[in-house]
Amino acid sequence: MFAAEAQLIPIPSIQREPTDGISFFFAVLPDEQARSGLAGVSERFRKSARMIGTPVGAHSYHLTLCPMGRPERMLPSLEAALLAAAGTVRASTFDVTLDSAMRFSAKDGRFPFVLCTDSVSGASVLKLRWAIADAQRRIGLSVSGVSSYLPHVALLHGHAIDAMQESITPICWTVREFVLIRSFFGQGHQEVVARWPLEPSVAARRLGVLDLADLPDLGELPAEDE
Q1: Residue 96 forms part of a structural domain
Q2: What angle do CA 100, 186, 146 make, to 5 degrees?
Q3: How far is residue 204 from each of residues 94, 201, 209, 210, 211, measured CA to CA in Å?
Q4: Residue 140 lies in a domain
Q5: Which CATH number does the domain housing residue 27 bear?
Q6: Which helix (H) or strand (E) holds 192?
Q7: What domain range includes position 74?
Q8: C-alpha–C-alpha distance, residues 82 and 90, integer Å
Q9: In a domain, 184, yes or no
Q10: Cα 8 to chain center, whole Å?
Q11: Which of 95, 157, 165, 210 is the most buried (most CB within 10 A)?
Q12: What is the per-residue pLDDT across 142-186, written as a single tens digit (0 to 9) for each?
């Protein structure tokens, strides 16, 4: 399920406000194993294709879900509006698979080298993107180009990356949360502002029930430490 609750979203006021040179976007982050796989692919292509550019640090790998919308009315706090909107989104966990490498078209004179999702996980990413964009819309932030997006993870930015596209050994992870990231232009610095967990999928819930039913009777278990 990917949806935003249909309700009027109150916008709390907070002290910290974005300034020039700061932006926000929603994303999902790879787990440790996927991050290691991404770093390996980045290194391999930089050597084999002799790519020259600025590699994205492994700690900064992310799959962008949705940018910050453009305000359509006065908001008491832009950051608080984003937090409130995200809090209404309800979505289930899903798997992401990156199975192809390619160079994107030039952006600001640079050619991003990225890994793209397969069609199934790409559709799941887009559904969550739509839900976040809709939540922003209801709070007064308009997101354009919601459907014109190819889900990907950027590994390198350069001025002389040759056009290419090829399959790779799939890199997979299960998305269990999405995050809001604060980005500082020109500084190569980003920070996670907040996280929102996703609900277990129907298949995962059913599997959990089956697993519990198959367990032998172990009697009373000791209480966990708090």
Answers
A1: yes
A2: 50
A3: 10, 5, 9, 10, 10
A4: yes
A5: 3.90.1140.10
A6: strand 189-197
A7: 21-214
A8: 15
A9: yes
A10: 25
A11: 157
A12: 999 898 899 999 999 877 677 788 999 999 999 999 999 998 876
Rounded Cα distance, 101 and 152, in Å: 9
- Would you say residue 3 lies in a domain? no
Taking Cα atoms as reference points, which of 134, 117, 112, 111 lies closest to residue 2?
134
Phi-psi sector, 3: left (phi>0), alpha (psi -120 to 50), beta: beta
pTM tops 0.85, yes or no: no
Q: Which two tokens stand for residue 52?
A: 């020259």
> What is the number of domains present in the chain?
1
DSSP one-letter string for 114-151 = EEEE-HHHHHHHHHHHHHHHHHHHHHTEE---SSS---
- Closest by CA to 30, choosing from 4, 67, 56, 54, is 56
DSSP string covering 1-53, please?
A: -EEE--S-------S----TTEEEEEEE---HHHHHHHHHHHHHHHHHS---S
Q: Give the pLDDT of the chain (226 residues) as one tens digit per residue.
A: 556 554 444 444 433 444 567 889 999 999 999 999 999 999 998 888 777 778 999 999 999 999 999 998 888 788 999 999 999 999 999 999 999 999 887 666 778 899 999 999 999 999 999 999 999 999 999 999 898 899 999 999 877 677 788 999 999 999 999 999 998 876 567 899 999 999 987 555 555 543 333 333 333 323 333 3
- At residue 201's C-alpha, the angle toward residues 132 and 219, to 5°, is 140
